[in-house]
Amino acid sequence: MLTYSERQSEDKDIGWYRSCKKISYYYNGIKKDGQKKSKSLYTHTFTYDFLYDDDTVYFAYCYPYNYSDLLDDLGRISADPVKSSFCSRRTLCMSLAGNKVEMLTITSKNNLENLNKRKGVFLTARVHPGESVGSWMMKGAIDFLTDETSEEAEILRQNFVFKVIPMLNPDGVINGNYRCSLAGCDLNRRWKAPSKVLHPCIYYTKQLMQQFSRERELTVFCDFHGHSRRKNIFMYGCNNSQAPEETRLFPYLMSKICPFFSFNLSRFGN
């Protein structure tokens, strides 16, 4: 649990921090819509000792990352003459509420003779607005890929073209939704046939992805999410029955490199 106290922020310049005691999350036995066969709903309980009188305190289950945070981070990259030389920023489309869906293209301007041969990587995050951990992971990925001092990042930039959409559902983030857009849709369930009017973020992202894959071989598509119960880092991927290693190799290598990544928690299905 995360806590933000307005009084504590004023007095001690303390922002969001981990707090609360007796944190519990459990089945409560109440059925959804009174249906006997439906799954039980959950109850979340915690205890917090208020430190100040006349205070306003906010609670979150993970560190917030809002639309303004994204604009600030992208603004710093755009204002940096070195980073902006290999990282271009543009608006993919406007959301249902008229907010910009930001997009980055990251690739090296060195060795441009092999530009057409560079493979593609497509990264997205925050289609579920409540899963702010996805934005923190995306921020780490962007910071690494735009690090002008990293030899590893420069090797990647010279061999790949990265398309990055760091916030697929800005309306949901701005309005405090957990899973849906302003149309009341789970946008992650609209990839098959997105509406240009109701689901513009998904519609134009899908168009961009199809165009990108026609230009060059698309080696990785990764959509960053969070999970309300599972810990560690893991992947949910597709399953190619003819070549199952195709989607399992990358997460397997990740589990060998990163101690926080769990291959055993990863799942692959049709």
Describe this structure in words.
This protein is of the alpha/beta class. It has three domains: 2-60, no CATH class; 67-229, Zn peptidases (Aminopeptidase); 233-270, no CATH class. Helix content is 30%, strand content 26%. It contains eight helices and twelve strands. The longest helix has 16 residues, at 200-215. The two termini are 35 Å apart. The model has no long low-confidence stretch (mean pLDDT 94).
SSE ordering: EHEEEEHHEEEHHEHHEEHE
Output the structural class: alpha/beta
Return the domain count: 3
Unreliable stretches (pLDDT < 50, length at least 5) are none
Strands of the largest sheet, in order across it? Answer: 6-7-9-8-10
Looking at how many chains there are and whether they match, the oligomeric state comes to single chain
Blueprint (SSEs and pairs):
Elements: E1 2-5, H1 6-12, E2 17-18, E3 21-31, E4 40-47, E5 57-60, H2 67-79, H3 83-86, E6 87-94, E7 100-106, E8 119-125, H4 132-145, H5 151-159, E9 160-165, H6 170-175, H7 200-215, E10 218-224, E11 236-238, H8 245-257, E12 267-269
What is this entry, summarized?
The chain has helices at 6-12, 67-79, 83-86, 132-145, 151-159, 170-175, 200-215, 245-257, and strands at 2-5, 17-18, 21-31, 40-47, 57-60, 87-94, 100-106, 119-125, 160-165, 218-224, 236-238, 267-269. It has 270 residues and is of the alpha/beta class.
